[in-house]
Amino acid sequence: MLVTRRLPAAVETALRESFEVTQEPSDRPLTERELAAAMRDHDALLCTVTDRVMAPCFEGPGVRARIVANFGVGVNHIALDAAARAGVVVTNTPDVLTDDTADLAILLMLAVHRRAGEGERALRAGTWTGWRPTHLLGRRLTGRTLGIVGFGRIGRAVAERAQRAFAMPVVAWTRTSPPESERDGVRFVASLDALLPEVDVLSLHCPATPETRHLIGARELARMRPGAVLINTARGDVVDEQALVDALRAGRIAGAGLDVYEEEPVVHPGLVDRDDVVLLPHLGSATRETREAMGMRAVENLRAFFRGDAPPDRLLGAATRP
Ligand code: 8YV
């Protein structure tokens, strides 16, 4: 199989125990052309979010790979329809990264409200002159109303943390929300439009699909409270970055905490400039424990497939033909 990036050592060892592995030594993202060639030269591909496994990887003569095992839960970089048409199985790594990604969403909420990035930058720049009663006053997170878009595993884990640790009332909207309901102390609303004006913090946890592209744009940002903060640990495409920059400049919202971007690793310069924005380099699942667990989960999927069993994390609908 081709493994596109370097992985935690224990994962690479486990892979080599079971498979004949080719690995790109430079640890750089492969081009679409290289990925298409890899699909013709290998029985399996183990890829990550930086690999765009698009339709040409699955189409035309000579495609040999029967499984694409993604290291990560989000699969917006894989052409699932083309994989399904070609009968190629696609798997991902859910569950194991839920807690760490939820923790990072909370970290961003705290960092924006308590001005942690600004404070750290000032200290390192040597401009901190000492404690004073009015220095870098932020805002309390405890008790603010949290809005969650997408109530899957990660959205639910963020809600639990916010409720238990920060006494935050939680309102959620998800594609499958019943009209108006309450479950586990979370109030579900029937539309995104209903959610936006109600919340102090809006945290995004939906997948990136054609339907969620620019889900948060100029219109949605204008419906948010002027003091509200946007948190995105999902995918960059869900937010129209230019509209976010415009809304921040105009003071329509109070800040943002972002871990994902529209054109990673490029970040809109209008975001980099701002002190009311906290920016992280796609670290949601980046703990030693979780990256190892993600890798082992991908290994389990690959082993099951080549044993002739159903891989535990096969994406339903992505590959239906034998
Ligand atoms: C991963 C992520 O680091 O799992 C996901 O969807 O966004 C990240 O947690 C990345 O996808 C690795 O491929």
Give an overview in words.
- By secondary structure, the chain is an alpha/beta fold.
- It folds into 2 domains: 2-96 and 287-307, NAD(P)-binding Rossmann-like Domain (Rossmann fold, 3-Layer(aba) Sandwich); 98-279, 3-Layer(aba) Sandwich (Rossmann fold), CATH 3.40.50.
- The chain has 11 helices and 13 strands.
- It has helices at 9-18, 32-41, 80-86, 98-113, 116-124, 153-166, 192-195, 218-223, 241-249, 269-272, 288-307; strands spanning 2-3, 22-23, 44-47, 67-70, 89-91, 146-149, 170-173, 181-183, 186-188, 201-204, 229-232, 255-258, 277-279.
- The strands form 2 sheets. Strands 8-9-7-6-10-11-12-13 form an 8-stranded mixed β-sheet, with helices on one face.
- Helix 8 (218-223) links the parallel strand 10 (201-204) and strand 11 (229-232).
- Helix 1 (9-18) runs parallel beside helix 11 and helix 4 (98-113) crosses helix 6 (153-166).
State the major sheet: 8 strands, mixed
**Annotation, overall tally of beta strands:** 13
Helix content: 25-40%
Spans of at least 5 consecutive residues whose pLDDT stays below 50 are 318-322
Cα-based radius of gyration, to the nearest Å: 21 Å
Helix-strand makeup class: alpha/beta
Distinct small-molecule ligands in the complex: 2-keto-D-gluconic acid
Question: Can you give the mean pLDDT?
Answer: 96
CATH topology of the largest domain, what is it called? Answer: Rossmann fold
Q: Strand share of the residues? A: 5-15%
- Going by CATH, what is the homologous superfamily of the largest domain? NAD(P)-binding Rossmann-like Domain
Text of the CATH class of the largest domain? Alpha Beta
Alpha carbon gap, first and last residue: 19 Å
The CATH architecture of the largest domain is 3-Layer(aba) Sandwich
Oligomer status: single chain
